Amino acid sequence: MEDPLTNSEFDEVIAAGMRVLGLVIDDAWRPAIRAHLEVNLRLGEQVLEFALADEAEPAPVFEAASNA
User: How high is the pLDDT of residue 2?
Assistant: First the structure.
């Protein structure tokens, strides 16, 4: 597992996302956004570390029936 990002690096990711999406975010929200990103990165690492057998098949795709 890689070292977690620093607060400064998370702030850079947040700033880049704001520029790309054209968002203006109040500074008071940055700690909550940073915490959200930290949790998502940690969960993503767990998914990537899960070993699957070479024979593993993806689940079939199910679609909801239309009510029309």
Answer: 64
Long-range own/partner contacts, residues 33-40 (CB < 8 A, 24 or more apart): 34/7, 34/10, 37/10, 37/13, 38/4, 38/5, 38/10
**Helix/strand/coil (H, E, C) string of 13-29?**
HHHHHHHHHCCCCCHHH
Read off the tokens for 66: 């239309």
Main-chain dihedrals φ then ψ at residue 59, nearest 5 degrees: -70, 150
Q: What is the pLDDT of residue 1?
A: 56
pLDDT tens, 41-51?
999 999 889 89
Phi/psi of residue 49, nearest 5 degrees: -80, -10
